[in-house]
């Protein structure tokens, strides 16, 4: 059940629908958004301007690892905001030094660079691989990526992605990304040539509808990279930071990358991403990489506080327990409604529908007070906070069951 809070504050006065639409006119229409305006979040719950409460299984798109406004993050931000916001990216600051050291210790990587978004970290990974190819592999620069992959929305990360339709958007695209088929090692082998420098993938393709790499595939890629002298780049922007029930997705598989990118859950709701590289792959020199807000003390202090929570063995054990609960509930619903099964790990799951009702079910679930996403029209995706309680998972499964059964929606609060 949601925490007991006043239903409305002065900020949460209902807006006439027309007023909301009027305000949205000044935002570039880059995506379709429902009309509700969200004003407050606490833990698993989100409130709209009309005082309606939602169980949030979007959590900022797998970002709010500890839920909305976790006190541990708020306190770290408050303390840092009173001490130092930013000295300049050209000067050291304590939180970025501490976060780099902690992340390298936890991942086994040698060095880190910090950005603000996942795309920025992946763009850095692409540059790093090209630099490494120039220095160590006779100028090789091509990266093998995958059908349906998602690596971000900069020009290079869009070119690296394999989202259907993206290959013709914003052309000409940056060159140098050969596309292999997912979970098909032979298709990778066939693309390796003298210009190949790296293989880049998500351990679980999140935006494609939660499609895990098979263990054999990921181990096979590691072996192929070793045999051909290529870098293995893991994009763990979505799967990292405890989302799969291990602190990093590569631990779930037992495969070590040469380059690793993190984002989303790393900041638990604030914008920070990381590019990490092994000693062999970490070849940037002064002038190669930068950014005004890279290593920002406020973001690094927040991420450090979040990471300490996520890294606790007891925390990871409860992600796994809640993940098992969620998966079992989804499997039961899939069987009951004759759907296409479930995929995922930890607290990242998809329910295959077998038809394209996804967007309609997302809207219907919202009417019942459950926020979910249709990663593709044929599947629903669930990304609850990682510290979900047993009761929250049960409540979400109940709301989903009602949505799938098409029971009448809840009475709407004014
Ligand atoms: C695997 C993966 N890589 C990269 C990105 C891009 O991250 P951002 O939106 O922070 O740029 C995403 C975002 O969904 C992602 O899931």
TrEMBL record:
Keyword NADP found: no
Keywords, in A-Z order: Aminotransferase, Pyridoxal phosphate, Transferase
Enzyme Commission no: 2.6.1.76
Protein family membership: Belongs to the class-III pyridoxal-phosphate-dependent aminotransferase family.
InterPro entries per UniProt: Aminotrans_3, Aminotrans_3_PPA_site, Class-III_PLP-dep_AT, PyrdxlP-dep_Trfase, PyrdxlP-dep_Trfase_major, PyrdxlP-dep_Trfase_small
Swiss-Prot/TrEMBL cofactor(s): pyridoxal 5'-phosphate
Record-level Gene Ontology MF annotations: diaminobutyrate-2-oxoglutarate transaminase activity; identical protein binding; pyridoxal phosphate binding
UniProt source species: Ideonella livida
Ribosomal protein keyword on record: no
PROSITE patterns assigned: AA_TRANSFER_CLASS_3
Top-rank taxon: Bacteria
Protein's name according to its UniProt entry: Diaminobutyrate--2-oxoglutarate transaminase
Class in the EC hierarchy, top level: transferase
Pathway: Amine and polyamine biosynthesis; ectoine biosynthesis; L-ectoine from L-aspartate 4-semialdehyde: step 1/3
């Amino acid at each position: 059940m949601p925490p007991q809070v006043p239903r409305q504050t002065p900020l949460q006065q209902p807006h006439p629908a027309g007023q909301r639409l009027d305000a949205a006119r000044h935002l570039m229409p880059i995506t379709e958004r429902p009309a509700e305006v969200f004003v407050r979040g606490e833990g698993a719950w989100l409130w709209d301007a009309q005082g309606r409460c939602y169980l949030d299984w979007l959590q900022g798109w797998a970002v709010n690892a500890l839920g909305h406004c976790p006190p541990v993050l708020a306190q770290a931000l408050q303390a840092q905001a009173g001490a130092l916001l930013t000295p300049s990216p050209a000067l050291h600051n304590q939180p970025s030094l501490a976060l780099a050291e902690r992340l390298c210790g936890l991942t086994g990587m040698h060095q880190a660079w910090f950005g603000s978004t996942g795309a920025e970290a992946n763009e850095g990974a692409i540059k790093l691989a090209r630099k490494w190819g120039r220095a160590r592999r006779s100028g090789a620069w091509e990266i093998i990526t995958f059908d349906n992959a998602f690596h971000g929305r900069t020009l290079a990360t869009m070119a690296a992605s394999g989202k259907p339709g993206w290959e013709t958007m914003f052309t000409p695209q940056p060159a140098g990304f050969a596309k292999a088929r997912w979970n098909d090692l032979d298709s990778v082998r066939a693309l390796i040539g003298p210009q190949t420098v790296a293989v880049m993938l998500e351990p679980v393709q999140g935006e494609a509808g939660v499609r895990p790499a098979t263990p054999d595939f990921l181990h096979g890629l590691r072996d192929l990279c070793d045999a051909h002298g290529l870098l293995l780049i893991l994009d763990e922007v979505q799967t990292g930071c405890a989302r799969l029930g291990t602190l990093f997705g590569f631990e779930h598989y037992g495969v070590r990358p040469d380059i690793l990118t993190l984002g989303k859950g790393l900041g638990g709701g604030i914008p920070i991403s990381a590019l990490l590289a092994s000693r062999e792959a970490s070849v940037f020199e002064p002038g190669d990489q930068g950014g005004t807000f890279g290593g920002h003390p406020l973001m690094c202090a927040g991420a450090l506080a979040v990471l300490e929570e996520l890294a606790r063995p007891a925390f990871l054990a409860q992600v796994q327990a809640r993940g098992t609960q969620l998966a079992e509930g989804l499997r039961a619903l899939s069987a009951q409604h004759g759907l296409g099964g479930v995929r995922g790990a930890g607290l990242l799951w998809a329910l295959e529908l077998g038809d394209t009702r996804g967007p309609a079910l997302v809207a219907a679930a919202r009417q019942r007070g459950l926020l979910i996403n249709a990663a593709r029209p044929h599947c629903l995706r669930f990304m609850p906070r990682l510290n979900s309680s047993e009761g929250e998972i049960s409540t979400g499964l109940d709301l989903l069951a009602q949505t799938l059964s098409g029971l009448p929606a809840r009475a709407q609060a004014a």
